[in-house]
Structure formats: structure tokens, C-alpha cells
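Give me C-alpha cells for this 90-residue protein.
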Amino acid sequence: MKSMILATAAIASLSLGACTMSNNERTALGGLAGAAGGLVLADALNANPNWTIVAALGGAAAGALVARNQNTGQCAYSNGDGTYYTGACV
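Here you go.
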């Protein structure tokens, strides 16, 4: 529980500056946040060390991928039912 609170606080503090970041910096931050999320989830599920590494790598890959059209400024958002819609990036 303590590690989850610490990871959440770290991600929240890093995310505050996301508006002034370049695309590469946002990708790096997304990867870092995803890896931290994977580690927290693996810790919460008491995963063995091998699955912890897999969870961190999977989280980093998912966090680095952003569905954003740079030309139009549109992002893809999930509806929660397997479909997606596009709208202005936040």
C-alpha cells in the first residue's frame, strides 16, 4: 500500500508539468508512469520477480504509446466498451 501511494504521488507530481513538455518528454514520462504502474500492480498481486519484470515492461510499453494525431491535435479515447472516439487532446 505504501508503494502504491508513493508511486501515485510521484506520477501526479511529474504529470503537472506535462503541458510544457515536448513530445519526446511526454513519451518518456508515459513510459515511466506505465512502468511504475506495472510495478505497483505486480507488487499488489504478490507476483514473482519474473512477472514483476514483465509487468514493468508491459506497463512501460503501454504508457509510451499515445494515440495522438500531431497534425490535427486530435486524440483517441476509449468508450470502455471496446470502441473509440476522437476529440481534442487534453
